[in-house]
Amino acid sequence: TVGNNTALEVVGNLSSPGNFKIKAYNDFILKDKVTFTAGGGLSGLGAYSTIETTKDLARVQVGNADLKSVGAINISARGEGNVSVKVNAQAYGLGTLIIGESKANVSPTNEVIIGSGAFIQAIGDLHISTGTSVDFVRDPYSVETRFDSFAGSAIPIEDIDAMSYLFQENTIIIETGALLETARSVRLHAEQYGFG
After folding, report:
1. β-strand 95-106 against 57-62: which pairing, if any?
2. How far apart are CA 77 and CA 67, in angstroms?
3. How far apart are CA 3 and CA 105, in angstroms?
4. Model pLDDT for residues 107-161, shown as the tens digit of each residue
5. Residue 163: exposed, middle, or buried by beta-carbon count in 10 A (0-12, 13-18, 19+)?
6. Residues facing 82 on adjacent strands
7. Across the beta sheet with 66-69, what order do the strands follow?
8. Phi-psi domain of 117 (left: phi exceeds 0; alpha: psi -120 through 50; beta: other)
9. CA-to-CA distance for 8 and 169, rounded, in angstroms?
10. 38-70 burial, b if ≥16 CB within 10 A, otherwise e?
């Protein structure tokens, strides 16, 4: 967050202006593996594994502040993740029952909010992006779930499921009363589909 009444400025040479970057970036690696084995005349087992990201927020918020640069200004809210849920279940006997579920639910939210009264001036390019770069490189997410089962029996019964979900929300909000200026190009990119 760049709070109210803040002034940030990059000064220097136009031919070598340096970098002005404000970014929020979430990077996570989540892995879970469950293994069960059951045996007997009549054997059964239940195996469950769930990974959910309930709070995956990358937010850049600029209040009533002045941001200036002799070069480019880059503002982004992005992320990446690698999620793996694996369940292995084996049951042996005359009759076997295997039930279970493996589930991964990843819901990143990426926001850039330019508040009322903000003044952003770039002599170079002005780039604002969420969920992607301004060069259309989407945030990389890998979400995998597996449920591998084996029933070594004459009467096998199974009720298993594996589910993977990736829901991304990418937003750029420029409030009334904010002023964005550049001497070159402005690129505002919010990834629409949220594919990883």
Report:
1. unpaired
2. 17
3. 33
4. 999 999 999 999 999 999 999 999 999 998 999 999 999 999 999 999 999 999 9
5. middle
6. 29, 142
7. 7-10, 66-69, 119-122, 179-182
8. left
9. 29
10. beeeebebebebebebeebebebbbbbbbbbbb
